[in-house]
Design brief:
mainly alpha, 3 strands, three-stranded antiparallel β-sheet, 14 helices, 3% strand, 373 residues
Length: 373
């Protein structure tokens, strides 16, 4: 199972590794700045914890690279069942925070199973599709949806974790398109989706919590209640706009430290960064994510097998979705759904799961040659 030699080091994807390290360090610096108290020291519990989680995450990445990723396909079903069990445990006895029941507490340690489940879901989906040789027809797609997608989607929606539930659904659609659908089925899905959207939207709306409904209302009309439901988006726009071309400078931002901007070190960390680094710094950060996505797509193209290709695509799609939704939230062009910015936002579970996912990407690229069979 384990196979560490000089070939792994020689073919190691240093570009992907360097990018996620740089983004993570930028994130720690931004967390440091966002959580500081005016005229006082920063809240050590945030940025120091993130540093500790970064070290743990790097170790986890190295561990993931140490064995061939094909083993993930062989244990995909076991991982998937374990992930479903954890999501059920969250619903039964999970810890509640910020209006949602998403965490499992074990002593002083808490973690969010949904963060790890995203990767488990991609592994399961990639493994299943890689074993199917024919182009997906209507029956095959429905079978995959009800076997693999439906249960976790409902469990995540029930927590409620609308952001992760939507991401799971989008990953399923993206990987299905990458796997290949019958042209007739593709057209039919578009027509069915357009016709059923009002009915599905009404069903989902009735199942949302009040704070989730308010977020959607604020997205449609932030000025409807600028000091209430539209406060997050308005303050985020103010922070980003005040950064102008080159930003106010590190530790010179005001929206975060003076608590004008809610969730400044998690969901809205990009707004804090943009205020201090400005348009130039934001473009640099966007460039890093852009290269990461391109590297992921190239890894999928060079994968040695279909499982590796779909697995790399699924992880790359996940990073892309999280990035576009999070930045879109801060700019007011996407609804606030509680999605963190990969590798930057504060959160140990999210950082660890992202590094493990990146480790799988590096594993696929490192072992892309037949000599690793």
């Amino acid at each position: 199972m384990f196979n560490i030699d000089r070939r792994l080091i020689r073919n190691f994807d240093w570009i992907t590794f360097s990018i996620i390290i740089v983004i993570s360090l930028i994130g720690i610096m931004t967390i440091f700045s966002a959580t500081r108290q005016p005229g006082d020291a920063p809240q050590a519990s945030f940025y120091i914890k993130q540093i500790v989680w970064l070290l743990i995450s790097i170790c986890a990445l190295i561990a993931i690279i140490s064995f061939d990723y094909i083993w993930l396909g062989r244990i995909a079903l076991v991982l998937y069942i374990a992930g479903i069990v954890l999501l059920v445990i969250v619903l039964i006895s999970g810890r509640t925070g910020m209006g949602a029941q998403r965490w499992i507490s074990i002593g002083f340690f808490s973690f969010q199973p949904s963060e790890f489940f995203k990767l488990i879901f991609i592994i399961m989906l990639a493994n299943y599709f890689s074993l199917q040789r024919e182009t997906l027809d209507t029956f095959a797609l429905l079978r995959v949806f009800f076997m693999i997608v439906c249960i976790p989607f409902l469990l995540l929606f029930k927590q409620p974790d609308l952001g992760t539930a939507v991401v799971v659904l989008l990953i399923f659609i993206s990987v299905s398109l990458a796997r290949g659908l019958q042209k007739k089925l593709f057209v039919s899905l578009i027509i069915i989706g357009m016709v059923s959207l009002p009915f599905i939207g009404n069903i989902l709306w009735t199942g949302l919590k009040d704070y989730q409904k308010n977020r959607l209302i604020a997205f449609i009309d932030p000025q409807a209640d600028p000091m209430g439901i539209g406060y997050h988006i308005n303050q985020s726009k103010i922070a980003i706009g005040s950064g102008e071309l080159t930003g106010k400078g590190f530790l010179k931002g005001t929206q975060g430290p003076f608590r004008f901007l809610p969730e400044k070190h998690t969901d809205f960390i990009f707004a804090v960064y943009a205020e201090e680094r400005g348009f130039v710094g934001s473009i640099f950060l966007l460039f890093l994510y852009f290269v990461l996505v391109l590297r992921g797509l190239d890894t999928a193209r060079k994968a040695k097998d279909e499982f590796g290709r779909l697995l790399a695509l699924g992880i790359t799609f996940m990073f892309s979705i999280y990035f576009f939704v999070n930045v879109g939230m801060t700019l007011g062009i996407m609804p606030v759904v509680g999605i963190p910015l990969p590798f930057m936002s504060y959160g140990g579970t999210a950082l660890l799961s992202n590094f493990i996912s990146a480790g799988v990407l590096i594993n696929i690229r490192t072992r892309r040659f037949s000599l690793f069979y």
